[in-house]
Design brief:
Length: about 280
């Protein structure tokens, strides 16, 4: 096995970009999810789960603590533009502000916002995109602090710093859903591992094991339960598609890819060898 793709997403829930090399640290790929939009209606950090328009924005790290964001109309907004919040709010059709990482001690910044529905089960079904006859995922796999916070304080990633997929899982999805737009951008992996001609979703067999990637090592924790975000429209060649989530729920026990944490960090590159420890 070897590293096929490395992805970095400078702004939470926005499209990111492939990189040929990156540094892994305790909080994942260095430069990943350094920024996020804050939903000024709910009073909480936003994601495409709640504000669908975010998925159509594409972020690029511009160095020196800056990020640039490509809007659907083709224009570019920079994090240091005076009118950035106004233009971003217009682009997603929702009042938002752009924020960089805040310290973990600023717990109010990361705290959950006002729910859209007072009924907890209805709220969860909406977030996870579940139909009435579909089960919710096993919420016990999430860190306990997620009951109080939108994201782990000090970070903007979803629960765990890395999400890993394989070329086999992407191929399996394309074979199962030939009419769907199956693209890694829809699933937002940190890493895609080339598993050659392995069948199905081999990463599920890594749960509970460690994976050596070049000179680094990561711990595979659990499957990654999928939510409504994978159904969103991301760009013109990646339209909204609800069939993807239906397949994941009904055929893959609700998971696609696996969550991981970093045991020992360092530089990784595409082509690096990958093996189970």
């Amino acid at each position: 096995m070897q590293v096929d793709q490395i992805w970095r997403y400078p702004v939470k829930s926005m499209l990111g970009a492939r990189v040929e090399q990156a540094e892994l640290a305790a909080n994942g790929v260095v430069g990943d999810r350094l920024w996020a939009l804050r939903d000024e209606v709910r009073g909480a950090i936003a994601s495409a789960r709640k504000v669908a328009g975010i998925s159509r924005l594409a972020a690029t790290y511009a160095g020196a603590g800056r990020v640039t964001i490509a809007l659907p109309d083709g224009s570019i907004v920079s994090s240091d533009d005076a009118d950035a919040d106004v233009r971003l709010s217009r682009a997603v059709d929702h009042p938002v502000t752009l924020w960089g990482h805040q310290p973990a001690s600023n717990t109010d910044h990361y705290r959950r916002g006002r729910p859209d529905n007072a009924d907890v089960m209805t709220e969860l079904r909406t977030i996870f995109g579940r139909l009435d006859d579909e089960p919710l995922p096993d919420l016990s796999i999430f860190p306990p602090e997620m009951a109080e916070f939108e994201y782990p304080p000090g970070n903007y990633f979803d629960c765990y710093p890395l999400m890993i997929m394989t070329t086999s899982s992407l191929r399996s999805m394309r074979e199962a859903l030939p009419g769907a737009a199956i693209d890694e951008r829809r699933f937002r992996p940190s890493l895609v591992i080339d598993t050659a001609d392995a069948l199905g979703h081999p990463e599920f067999g890594w749960i509970g094991r460690r994976l050596r990637i070049g000179m680094t090592e990561v711990q595979i924790g659990s499957g990654c339960p999928r939510c409504v975000t994978v159904t969103r429209e991301f760009c013109d060649d990646l339209p909204a598609d609800r069939s993807v989530l239906r397949h994941v729920i009904r055929e893959l026990d609700q998971n696609l890819g696996v969550y991981a944490t970093v045991v020992s960090g360092g530089r990784i590159e595409t082509g690096d060898s990958v093996g189970l420890v």
